[in-house]
Amino acid sequence: MNGRTVQLDLRVVLPVAVLAMVVLTIILVEICGREGVKLVSESPTAGPTGTVGPTFTPGPSPTAGPEQATATVQAAEGGGDRDQVRQQDLAEIQQALEDYRAEEGEYPTTNNNIQTLCVYEGDDAGCAIKDFLDPLPQEPLGDPSINGYFYQSDGERYVLYAIREADEVPECEDHPAHLARFDSVMCVSEPGAAPTP
After folding, report:
1. Are residues 89 and 46 in the same domain?
2. If DSSP codes are grouped into helix, strand and coil, which group holds residue 185?
3. Residue 163, SS3 per DSSP
4. Do 71 and 147 form a contact (C-beta atoms < 8 A)?
């Protein structure tokens, strides 16, 4: 060395260091957010390995308010599978409704209004079938007050409604205004007709 000194200009070094830290943080978050990423090497002498716990796989994005459906109408990936689950759930709910009618002589009545099946305990007539089916099936997309199962009955007949995402399941002929936020709905009824107004 010939006696020269190196001077660093902090106005240049500091922003570069901050940028590097931000980039490293983003990379670390991306890597650690993936399911099954090993936190410790798997060498025989390293000891047990840890894995990151299960991560949330985002589905369709939620909307700001109840006016719109949470699910996208273009049948998000898995929409057909979710529709199959909905059909099975509606069949279980129908059986519980029949069991309720056998015991009580009529279906739980909503006075012909459409309600969530059982989101609001004490207000939703559909909660009455919990004695025959508990827990009640939950809608595959989540939030039952937005994407749940819906129930309408005059005591003699009923209709159950659910969102429909794919074309494999038949669409309900009736699409009540109360469920207009869904582009498509499926339904089942007993004894095959909608409740009388």
Report:
1. no
2. strand
3. strand
4. yes
